[in-house]
């Protein structure tokens, strides 16, 4: 069976995505066994960092599971999973402070975060429709239907691309504040960088897959239009 070069690239990107997910878990588990010199738990570090940045009204809540950590911009709350909330490891503090980084972005209206919030309702609406339009356009060889699918899918791809600087910026803020506030020593910064870098790689892989898929659909549309 003949595979188009784009199919091969997408397959490689999927492989990268799977590898990135394994790396996130492996890196987190590794540094979850390395306690920080400060002895702070993720919940304590998050609370101190929020307070230091004038976010005393933003609560830190416990959420069940592992790596389910997130900042909820609608409720304005930082939610931390079991090992992060209660743990005092480099991994725990890195993840907790990363989520606080998003809360700080929200406070200062970080442009890329604002853009992501603005297009989220649109993306949420079209993301479920786009696959149906793309499949329908391919099955019935309807270029118009395929074009609408590409347009809708483009919104989802744009959302993922905007997410990249948001995530990298949150990690950058987290590392800087973790050191300056004494949560970790300079010698522990490398471990924090590895934890945050592994997590960021999953977003990069997801964005790469989406971009390649979009490029493939555009190529198919151009051939059908010819």
TrEMBL record:
It comes from Brevibacillus reuszeri. Keywords: Hydrolase, Membrane, Protease, Transmembrane, Transmembrane helix. Pfam families: Zn_peptidase_2. GO terms for molecular function: peptidase activity. GO terms for biological process: proteolysis. The gene is yugP. The chain crosses the membrane at residues 6-22, 119-140, 146-168, 195-220. InterPro entries: Zn_peptidase_2. This is Membrane protease YugP.
């Amino acid at each position: 069976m003949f595979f188009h070069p784009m199919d091969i690239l997408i397959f490689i990107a999927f492989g990268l995505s799977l590898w990135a997910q394994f790396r996130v878990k492996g890196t987190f588990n590794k540094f979850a066994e390395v306690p920080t010199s400060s002895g702070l738990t993720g919940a304590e570090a998050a609370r101190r960092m929020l307070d230091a940045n004038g976010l005393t009204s933003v609560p830190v809540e416990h959420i069940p599971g592992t790596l389910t950590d997130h900042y909820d911009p609608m409720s304005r709350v930082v939610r931390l999973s079991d090992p992060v909330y209660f743990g005092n490891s480099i991994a725990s503090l890195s993840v907790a402070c990363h989520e606080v980084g998003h809360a700080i972005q929200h406070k200062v209206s970080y442009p890329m975060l604002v853009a992501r919030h603005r297009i989220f309702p649109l993306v949420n609406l079209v993301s479920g429709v786009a696959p149906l339009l793309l499949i329908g356009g391919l099955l019935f060889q309807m270029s118009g239907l395929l074009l609408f699918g590409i347009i809708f899918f483009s919104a989802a791809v744009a959302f993922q691309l905007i997410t990249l600087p948001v995530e990298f910026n949150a990690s950058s803020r987290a590392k800087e504040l973790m050191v300056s506030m004494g949560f970790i020593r300079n010698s522990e910064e490398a471990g924090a960088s590895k934890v945050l870098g592994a997590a960021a790689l999953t977003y990069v892989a997801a964005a790469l897959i989406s971009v390649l898929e979009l490029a493939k659909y555009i190529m198919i549309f151009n051939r059908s239009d010819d």
